[in-house]
Amino acid sequence: MAIWMQPVQSASSGTSSCPQWEERFRTRAGLLTDKQCSFAADIGQQGVVVQHKTSLRRRCESVTEGSDETGSRTLLNRIYTDLYITEGLNEEAIMPHEVKQLEKVSKIQNFHDTPIRYHDIFKASADQHGPIRVVLTYGVAGAGKTFSVQKFTLDWAEGLENQDVSAVVLLSFRELNLIRDQQHSLLTLLHVFHPTLQNLPAEKLAVWKLLFIFDGLDESRLSLDFNNSGLVSDITQKSSVNVLIMNLIKGNLLPSALVWITSRPAASNKIPPSFVSRVTEVRGFTNAQKEEYFRRRFNDEEEKASIIISHIKTCRSLNVICGIPVFCWITAIVLDDLMTTEQRGELPKTVTDMYSHFLLVQIRRKKKKYHEGHGRSLQELMEADKKVLLNLGRLAYDHLIEKNIVFYQEDLEQVGLDVKEALVCSGVFTEIFKRESLIFQTPVYSFVHLSVQEFLAAVYMLHAFTSRNTEVLRRFLGKDYTETFLDDFLLRVMKETFKIENLHLELFARFLHGLLVESNQRLLGGLLGQIENNPKTMKKIISNLKEIKNGNGCPDAAINTFHSLVEMGDLSVYQEIQQFLKSKKRSKKLSEIQCSALAYMLQMSEVVLDELDLEKYNTTDEGRHRLMPAILNCRKARFVNFSLTERHTILVCFLRHHPPHLTELDLSITNLTDDAVKNLCSVLQTPLCRLQILRLCNCKLSKISCAYLSAALKSNPSNLTELDLLGNNLKKADVQELEDLVTHPGYKLETLLWVSL
Predict the structure, then answer these.
(1) Average of per-residue pLDDT across 77-88
(2) CATH for 45-60+82-284?
(3) d(CA 16, CA 23)
(4) Could you tell me the pTM of the whole model?
């Protein structure tokens, strides 16, 4: 190719070379100046971003409710309803079951929460110092965490929000699990999961504002040990996937990058708080949003929507769990089916009833779709599905105990589940079990919701009992378990769920008891096996629930015995407590189970209790212990002369929920140790604590305890106006710092009561 050139004058002629000539030469030769190169590079990178946005838009623009196999994907923008998202620290010392979380959320939301919109997740509020780099968002299963992440990503990809972010990198832990044994650099990790970014120069990653979204920390099978993570600071340096993620969170790797992590509550503590700039909680639907969901779903059947909404409001357990959007979907499917002409009957009132019907509805739907005209009854179809359902139950049971909610091909093979056979032979398989094809087209499986896994796990465990499969039962009940009667078996299960490490199995235990109801056994046919449900056995099971001891365990776990009674259709305790609350005479001695029921009913009541005084209740020491959850819905709590030696951590756990009405707490004559006072101070120093009066009379407090109190009040000028330390044998020097706070204008403490030695 000929190149046109202008003659060059020599340097000796006294003239310099012409920049315009040089640029013309570069242009004619197909070369670019540095400025033009930079411009061309920017154009190229803009093309990469456009391609990346297009890819993300396709990935996030449509979603499914329930199983992906049905093909009924819906545009996210069409169905997305704003969720209730709040800002605040997750300070749970003892993590209750997620249904318990919902109960507390439904009661205490809107009082002192800071609502935040999903697309403002990285925007600092006026009272925050420094930029927000790492956000942890937690919420119960099905609350809408993934939908929020998808909506955020979709809005960015469509150019609507957060356009200051150069690129969003959406990753899920269920995908990352697939390469957990491989070595990668951050650069190759990006290329594997987002091929559209392959043409992005490595040096641009350091100057671009990238947002990494890690969805589903609770589904992670990666080892995240932040104390022994190793250092990686170069994006081209290879390491294990878990080490890359930890260094990204720590800020060693791409310190300019933003990180957003979602998780269920039980796994949220895998990320040390010191690395998190903001914690938010997705709380699912408020009561108004529940109604909006059902009215939108049945927009052309207003009467049906009204009946469903009214029914849910009358059933406390259903109303609470409908705070989960996925459960609203399950409820809509079941009640819609039962309200048809040929299936009209009594609507489910318990959670077990609802799930038993849900399983039946899916079988009936598949009968209509695949078996019309073959004359097969529902019971025949149930038998056809029995093998698959029990294999699914085994998968659910084995992994529920291990706290796994996502499964891979090897997990299915271990329980003898052949997916191809199940897809052909079992119509119900695709309705309760989700299959997603992720990276490398590798399938990942999960149940449509955690509660479905819990239900099938209970079905499988009950079948294992009736078929005398002790090997299966020993995985949960211990190697010393031997064949026994149904009442003894259920008693042992309930005692196991009282343990801190098994609190996640409470709904599973409720299902086990609810499955004993004759109507549910009829619905599920031979799936449960032959149950010895004679009146004498049922009476013994109910008696065990009423008399079981909890000791110093979490009183929330003891409330589950009350819920299990309700699932069995025994409302006697509920009715007894209703009468107790109506009666003006409160001298009646309360049993422990009655105290659990009372604590639950007081906690969930629309009327705020003026005073919770444990001394006024005629019950045992354990009974008073079981009343502790009622502190969440009272203005004044008196735990005077109450043994807190081994229970103070549980009390602190409830206080960390920041009861919205509690302004006065009296812990006099409780012999608080220094450690107990230190834990109590961890609540006092948080901005959400509303206590105004704290009484610690005759608690044998030490100088160290006083130092903890003064440090807590100094670190956060709290609402505390009165501190009563009478009867603690303290010296002037012990309380000097506290006295200084009274005279200091920057603190609200006005009254300090104590007597010098």
Answers:
(1) 61
(2) 3.40.50.300
(3) 15
(4) 0.78
